[in-house]
């Protein structure tokens, strides 16, 4: 039984896809691409797909992961291409490796997020970030299924930096970009919780909703505050006689550029 | 003229609304054509929420037919939920298409498909959000032509003030004819403005332009006559009929949404029309004659459609799917073909006979046998004669015995309440029937673990049917009758707990009845309801009976009529009905005779296997019954990788 781990994106307007929507779309893409899936046993067999740690509806992502089990062996890169073509543009399969290690989900220790704050002066954003980082604990509230819940949004934040977006798009109004590295914890601290924290500590209130994108997920290097490609161990564990054209992944892997651009 | 996408402005609103994915488009198999390279542009709307509208076959077919044409583009728009509507008003974002997010007002035609009358208030919301005047008479050359289609358009009079025109019948060829007329008019520099364009459409005899007809009323409120007010406009407007379904294998590339919708499957229409002659059924009357798609045409559509979509279920649609002359071979052929692929097959709208159970068995060869649905419609033998649903209790019991004997655990039975001449006793017999079904089921299955669900809807008399003259049962009487039946079923100690009972109260039916058989005076009620906040009338949580009644009381009495006049009043032979000038092909005298036959409890056969009964459609529309068998079989697909 071949298991394949895939990295995929939620880009542009398709960031409004909910996880349930994605699951349906992905399973249909598997059928169109005629992927020989392994099925669960039972009355209503389901293709074997495990999803990990999906980004919330409305946030974009460059680094979502899932694993599929096949009933027949397939060449990995070819399969990636087929599936990518079968999915709508914006839901793109950017990397694929054959699973050769266990406990993949545990390797998703932390995420790198980018938050684009249109209408926010970079200096204001920097001040707010400094205040947030200076605090021991920043309590925020979020509405959950069980009502309003209060928790700390500071502890899980490994790094938080602000910069000016003007370099990317001169001429437009002010725009600050935040880069956030956050450890996956319980309860999960999401980018909007950090925004609530910035509002709580420094009254930072973006006039329009932030455009949020997950840039990476993976193992956390505590010292440098960076996140490494979770598919790397599978790639490294490849047998000496490669069955697939492994090499660098097509999207340049999940390496996270260091610091700000 | 460049037309900008409203998406950047919409995008800022989407994080604040429920299920934003429904507004972003990008569905698999959707089409975005270059705006400037097209000279005729259609915005197609299904006036309900995206989750209901997206799977609609009519819109999907026309979208593809139009987009296949060079120089023509079609985009889709749906009703936005009140949360987004409020934000769109606040931020001045107009009604948009989901394909390229262009404002609806920028299109040449705004075409709405009305499966039901309950979409009328949603049309007004969309017009207003689009910045298009609600009243046809207030529109200018810069507004699109507002066109209504779908089954409800067979009586467009209640929305006559709001639409510019209506088309009745099959849309495939009609939209292309209309496109050519618009193209020519635009190429000539739009001579004579909107009026000239509407006149050119009206002259064809296949497009109804309400503004070109005057309605005269008698002192007692009835219609005196409906007359064209412009020379060259025909007295009656004809429906459109597509004769060869194999020439129109649409949708070829069904849309696959990202958002969850009400039908998560691919549908193939296996025939159009029905001549069973059920007297309550508007669809069966207005879509005559029967036109079958061939077994090979069906096989090809299923094959291509599955490849294009990745759906895991195929529905074989029609008004009575088991009546296809080659349904046995179709079911077996498809079941053979997809046995390995975990593709589910379903056959909605089936009749009550044992052959059906064989079909259902074939279609569920590998899968689970959960529930089978039958629609006897009337509880008593007498009632079924009145409605011309020729099923005896014996047939039904034999059928369910076969079903339970073949491992089916649940049988669902559909009925109507409030049919003409119905008494309490007729409805109470539904309970007896359910008890007999359970008793037989326990006997043949040897198990007490079987169920029968009785589902009841209120009957609403519809235009172009033999019951168009019938009085509708009031909401109070409907509720009282259903309460008696409920008590009877619940009170049955031996069988009651095996019988499920589902019904709706009688109130929504009264509003539907008002809109179905209404005339132009009803427009004032629709407008008042919309202005009072009425939206999404097909949704229980949004529908307000009290609002409809309040608005009707505000606007109808000054016009000399009221809700009861439109709903519970029986009409006479002489009365001019609001839709008489819309020609469905049915001969009004034949409909009247059939109405008299109903009152006499006389049944009429299906003209597919008996001589013609002169309903009038074939000679009037120059059409004929198109059925097999072709004698062909579905061959296994060759594997090409």
Automatic annotation (TrEMBL), chain A:
The DUF2344 domain sits at 3-191
Family annotation (InterPro entries): DUF2344
Where do Low complexity bias regions lie? 238-254
Its domain of life reads: Bacteria
Which Pfam families does the record cross-reference, listed alphabetically?
A: DUF2344 (PF10105)
Q: Where is this region: Disordered?
A: 223-261
The molecule here is called Radical SAM protein
Protein species of origin: Streptosporangium nondiastaticum
Automatic annotation (TrEMBL), chain B:
Q: Indicate the transmembrane segments per the record.
A: none
Superkingdom classification of source: Bacteria
Question: Which Pfam families does the entry link to?
Answer: Radical_SAM, Radical_SAM_N2
Instruction: Using the record's annotation, list all stretches that form the Radical SAM core domain.
Output: 260-502
PANTHER family per UniProt: RADICAL SAM DOMAIN PROTEIN (PTHR42731:SF1), SLL1084 PROTEIN (PTHR42731)
Q: Which SMART domains match?
A: Elp3 (SM00729)
GO MF terms, alphabetically ordered: catalytic activity; iron-sulfur cluster binding
For this entry, the protein name equals TIGR03960 family radical SAM protein
Tell me which species this is from: Streptosporangium nondiastaticum
Could you tell me which CDD domains the record lists for this protein?
Radical_SAM (cd01335)
